[in-house]
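R.M. (postdoc): so does anyone remember the format we settled on? I'll just put the structure tokens first.
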């Protein structure tokens, strides 16, 4: 998949394409519906392309901390979209300056440079300065330059539209099964194994300290059952207990994600790993001493093994 960085007007292109437009945070079930629609429209010789915005407008324009972090990094999006057959990825850097683009300028001076045959958006799509136009407005403007527009209805889960905002709330609330149902896969974070205090090793539970994950929405402080993927070309997968939070029993002072891989031994320092959250087991607790913490860790492992059929 080819990636093009966009900071203003995109570079001109003569390749015919079907284009999906959106933020695509999480590439959830709603986004997957857009991808299916675009695939069905793409004729032979037409590239499947995505025009995806980077940071959330509420963070860029208002400084709303709730929207600073994301469900997926840009690299995550590229991996997910590549797996769905996307051939061209426009990574649009959303800035205060870019936000001044009018709906007419966006269509007539940006999209018109890309040789688009058809555009696909969701029914709630809004664009242009001050969110000044919507999907129907896009359809009208695109018609003036002979570009077709498909408006895809939202995907419903339990009667409500699947949205990145709801998924974020589930992740922050520790409701991993609900998040997975809307994403179509477990919520995951990818980072690099760093050296920590190595306290878990002295307690008999050596953990991977996963760094470089600040761009992700923080999972609710708790213990989770999950998996860890090691490597991409020939990936290995391991069941794991995940501790996410502030580690109050050992006077932790920052949010961390640590993973204890069941039945695993080896040195993974410096390796990139992906941690998938499958199920909430219990909330984070400030135990009265290390003995109580170790006793609970033993119980957590027993519960995990029972769920997985490893007991």
């Amino acid at each position: 998949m080819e990636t093009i960085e966009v900071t203003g007007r995109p570079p001109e292109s003569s390749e015919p394409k079907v284009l999906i437009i959106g933020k695509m945070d999480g590439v959830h079930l709603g986004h997957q519906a857009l991808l299916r629609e675009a695939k069905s429209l793409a004729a032979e010789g037409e590239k499947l392309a995505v025009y995806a915005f980077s940071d959330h407008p509420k963070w860029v324009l208002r400084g709303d901390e709730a929207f600073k972090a994301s469900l997926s990094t840009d690299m995550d999006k590229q991996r997910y979209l590549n797996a769905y057959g996307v051939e061209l990825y426009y990574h649009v850097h959303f800035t205060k300056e870019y936000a001044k683009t009018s709906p007419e300028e966006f269509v007539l001076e940006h999209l018109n440079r890309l040789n688009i045959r058809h555009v696909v958006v969701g029914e709630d799509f809004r664009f242009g300065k001050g969110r000044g136009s919507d999907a129907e407005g896009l359809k009208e403007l695109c018609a003036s330059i002979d570009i077709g527009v498909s408006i895809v209805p939202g995907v419903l889960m339990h009667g409500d539209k699947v949205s990145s905002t709801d998924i974020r709330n589930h992740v922050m609330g520790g409701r991993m099964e609900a998040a997975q149902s809307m994403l179509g896969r477990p919520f995951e974070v990818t980072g690099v194994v760093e050296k920590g205090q190595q306290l878990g090793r002295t307690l008999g539970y050596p953990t991977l300290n996963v760094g470089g994950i600040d761009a992700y929405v923080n999972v609710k402080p708790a213990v989770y059952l999950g998996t860890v993927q090691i490597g991409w070309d020939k990936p290995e997968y391991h069941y794991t207990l995940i501790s996410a939070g502030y580690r109050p029993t050992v006077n932790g002072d920052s949010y961390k994600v640590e993973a204890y891989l069941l039945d695993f031994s080896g040195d993974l320092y410096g390796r990139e790993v992906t941690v998938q959250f499958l199920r909430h087991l219990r909330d984070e607790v400030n135990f009265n001493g290390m003995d109580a913490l170790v006793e609970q860790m033993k119980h957590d492992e027993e519960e995990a093994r029972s769920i997985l059929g490893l007991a």
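R.M.: ...and that's the designed sequence above, right after the tokens. Also worth knowing: The radius of gyration is 22 Å. Residues 224 and 280 are 5 Å apart (CA to CA).
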